[in-house]
Design brief:
CATH class: Alpha Beta
Oligomer: single chain
Mean pLDDT: 94
CATH superfamily: Glycoside hydrolase/deacetylase
Structural class: alpha/beta
Number of strands: 9
Strand content: 5-15%
Distance between the termini: 35 Å
CATH architecture: Alpha-Beta Barrel
Length: 302
């Protein structure tokens, strides 16, 4: 092979982006969660608005409609999550005395005020989740177009959220800087670690596991609820065991209302919450609480 194939402008030690510096985990300051917690579990519940006829630009959201318009079968399943499934999740959280982070599309906040009131009244955190599943942030948008999307999203909430989760967890190279400019403090799009990461735009990246999300395992990979529960329990057990070497760890888990909120699956969430509550070394924290503890310790794993 000609050596020219191995030459490119950004070739160098580390990684191919500059949002945070590459660094060995053994060289960073350990985090110590409050109350002696070894593993902080953060539950993220997305509340999404799915248009019946999505544009698909630049791609269709993973949960978007599948068959030709009007795809009422898939639309009503998604709608079930916001009508029924989310209230099962709220009940399970209340019974376990657990607070979660609800990632809310602007369109959901605008269309379903009683749902937002129920979440707030239960003491949960609300973070912004873009305008809708058909408003993907991507490089093809101009800076002004993307800024307008963020501004419109935040205008749908009576009190401005401090956290962000992008629709389909997709970003442009400008997204994080625009979020900081809009007053947002933390973002849950990436899963680069098992600890938060501080980046150059002063936004905290809070890991959010795609591999363990209910959508990935129960919907996409069609695993059983027993398997989903066991894999999360195994992950928590391993993270607890790594506390001695790496300090406090965290696990971000997505709970999708139209997936885990189904009547034949909600038992698995109840069992997961019981498992977490029964372990004195594990605690549940909202994304905002994780960000506060991370920032207060001036920890910078990057």
């Amino acid at each position: 092979m000609d050596k020219s194939y191995l030459t490119y402008p950004k070739r160098g030690y580390g990684q191919d982006h500059e949002f945070y510096k590459w660094r060995l985990s053994t060289e960073r300051k350990n985090i110590q969660w409050k109350d002696g917690t070894k593993v902080a579990v953060s539950l993220i519940i997305p509340l999404e608005f799915f248009p019946l006829n999505p544009s698909g630009v630049p791609f269709k959201h993973p949960g978007a409609m599948v068959t030709p318009y009007p795809d009422l079968r898939h639309f009503t399943v998604r709608d079930y999550g916001n009508r029924v499934g989310v209230f099962r999740i709220l009940e399970a959280l209340e019974n376990a005395d657990v607070k979660a982070s609800f990632a809310v599309n602007g369109e959901v906040a605008r269309r379903y005020p009683p749902l937002i009131d129920a979440i707030k009244n239960a003491g949960h955190e609300i973070i912004a989740h873009g305008l809708s599943t058909d408003h993907i942030h991507h490089e093809g948008l101009s800076a002004s177009e993307e800024k307008a999307l963020i501004t419109e999203t935040l205008s749908c909430f009576h009190s401005a959220p401090k956290g962000w989760l992008s629709p389909a967890r997709n970003q442009s190279s400008r997204t994080l800087g625009l979020l900081r400019g809009a007053g947002l403090d933390y973002c849950l799009d990436w899963e680069m670690d098992q600890l938060p990461v501080a980046i150059t735009t002063d936004v905290t990246l809070i890991p959010n596991s795609y591999e363990l999300s209910d959508f990935t395992l129960l919907h996409t990979r069609r695993q059983t609820e027993e398997s989903w529960l066991k894999q999360i329990q195994d992950a928590i057990e391993l993270l607890v065991s790594e506390h001695t070497r790496f300090g406090g760890q965290m696990l971000g888990l997505t709970l999708t209302p139209y997936v885990i909120g189904q009547p034949f699956r909600i038992w698995a969430l109840r069992a997961l919450l019981a498992h977490v509550k029964d372990n004195p070394e594990v605690n549940t924290l909202t994304a905002g609480e994780i960000n506060q503890q991370f920032v207060s310790q001036n920890a910078n794993p990057s």
